[in-house]
Design goal:
The protein has 128 residues and is an all-alpha fold. It has one domain. It is globular, with a radius of gyration of 24 Å. 7% of the residues are buried. About 17% of the residues have low confidence. This is DUF4296 domain-containing protein. It comes from Dawidia cretensis. InterPro entries: DUF4296 (IPR025381).
């Protein structure tokens, strides 16, 4: 056993619990997002809808400038249906771009969600 000077022992007794609490707090899975920013689940939902819509538009076979306009119209409907604005979505995207670890988690969940949808669609198509 190492015997520290009395001052060091006292300092260790005071600071060990504080350090332990800080370490535990830093290990929390979800970080709170600021007001006016969509949470991760909402971002996944919105990005899923947007990507599916853009995929459908790309399969229409229309010129790219027209496809862009059609995508904008559909995106506006997605936002309206969700009760949000384009500016809220952009603000949220900017927040997550500045927090790459959280953005990575969003994209991981997004890819998993899209893969699951694709698998379900394949199973449904096979049953027909």
């Amino acid at each position: 056993m190492i015997i520290l000077p009395v001052d060091m022992n006292e300092m260790m007794r005071k600071w060990c619990p504080v350090v332990a609490v800080l370490v535990l707090l830093s290990c929390t899975a979800r970080q709170e997002v600021p007001p006016g920013v969509l949470n991760r689940d909402e971002m996944v939902k919105m990005l899923t809808e947007i990507l599916i819509t853009e995929d459908k538009v790309s399969k229409l076979g229309i010129a790219s400038d027209s496809a862009y306009q059609v995508s904008d119209l559909f995106r506006a409907r997605i936002f309206e249906k969700a009760g949000m604005t384009d500016s809220l979505f952009r603000r949220s995207m900017n927040y997550y771009i500045e927090h790459p670890k959280e953005m990575q988690q969003i994209y991981t969940t997004l890819v998993d969600s899209l893969n699951l949808r694709e698998q379900r669609a394949s199973v449904a198509a096979e049953k027909k």
